[in-house]
């Protein structure tokens, strides 16, 4: 009796693993001679999100960024495969070759997004980042007009106002301001900018300190709590939350953010007489279509508002934080930037939108930061058909990589950004490389490319240049001294300050800064 039961269980387990092995062997055969790495739990498995990399066992949560170009250099070519024993993706093709990447980003139908990989972002509903096909097309068509040049001007003006208020109302006349972590400054700035320029939500630095009546979290607090805990919300079923105080606070933040977003929608519908052309109006108005065409459901409207709030500030804030850290570490680059800004702005004058095209060194500093710290270090796609991608080996011979229909394909952005073939001395922070008119455009992909490229690139560039210009012209940025690290070398300090982890996007771990007023 008992032995029969065990026999049954054993044969199920053996059957399962046997099938996996056969599947893996078959996939390996299909991939031909493509060099590969192997993991027990590999790409696309949620378990990885919580774990560091262990060779052969777990791919880890930050593998795309940590590995950079190393595995490709070792393999001698810029397209490789990753095989996983457990996980939704038995094979994932990693592509770091600029020509092959261009081929993928320009053929959306043949290399679509794997929508399952974006489930984390659907906490309030499907949205422009997490969908494909007709639904995505509709969302993009509704949102894109809000990212016009007219809106960029608004982004600029609102950013200048917000940073001016930071100086006058928060930093006051202190000669130096120290912050424990750069994101303590950059997250609120970026959130205030997307709040006003995208949603007409004019929050000032002071007002937002206390939660309104009936709320536990401020708008900002709720949004940060939600963006920090999307995975928990995805994994923990609703009925569990009441058993833990910590979990209950998380649930409360999710509910309150929903209320804040609903309030924003209602207020906008009521005040519709005032003509507005921002993102919120574009989204809300699209729901009141008269021609009977497809409109958004309430969940989709909420999903899109949430994703724009999130995409619109997290990547920006992290990029600004890395930029501050790099300028603090490389004071000579900061001086160069300061001198450049001074040659464009008159003393004590606020920068204007028309000056933006002149601030090219500022832009070069951002590009170099985005090359070194791409917020999305690996962009997921999959192959909708059997196909072939071509690359070259270390001797320059063409190599064809066969790709089976359904295979995951990851655009290995960080690997490409650190490839010495395109970037001389790739680990060095050298903004000047972007001032050379012949910089390798195809090997730079922080915003993705093609039809699914970032919709907010101009938005980021506009607010980023305004923020950086204003801060660097008034304050000198340095790394906060800490007696704990007194004996540290420059290399050690750099390693400590530039440490990253991966949550929804690449995230700085701890960047302690001092802003000192320039004399
Ligand atoms: C440094 C700043 C930013 C970086 C590096 C960045 C990067 C990216 C990347 C790599 C994608 C493609 C993601 C994928 O295929 O999975 C993307 C998509 C997107 N981004 Fe950004 N982003 C930034 C800022 C922004 C801002 C400020 C906004 C909005 C205000 C925004 C809105 C979007 C939207 C809506 C999409 C989806 C586009 C589509 O699929 O049609 N991003 N971004
Ligand atoms: C979110 O995480 C960051 C660190 O990644 C932390 O500094 C911040 O306090 C967290 N915010 C909330 C609301 O949990
Ligand atoms: C959007 O339109 C649908 C259908 O007309 C309606 O049920 C829903 O309440 C609307 N949502 C919002 C937020 O206005
Ligand atoms: C920065 O990169 C963008 C592409 O993301 C490019 O259009 C722009 O010309 C670059 N500018 C500078 C100054 O590097």
UniProtKB/TrEMBL annotation:
InterPro entries: Cyt_P450, Cyt_P450_CS, Cyt_P450_E_grp-I, Cyt_P450_sf, Cytochrome_P450_Monoox. Its cofactor is heme. It comes from Coprinopsis marcescibilis. This is Cytochrome P450. GO terms for molecular function: heme binding; iron ion binding; monooxygenase activity; oxidoreductase activity, acting on paired donors, with incorporation or reduction of molecular oxygen. Keywords: Heme, Iron, Metal-binding, Monooxygenase, Oxidoreductase. Belongs to the cytochrome P450 family. Heme binds at residue 454. PROSITE patterns: CYTOCHROME_P450 (PS00086). The keyword Metal-binding applies.
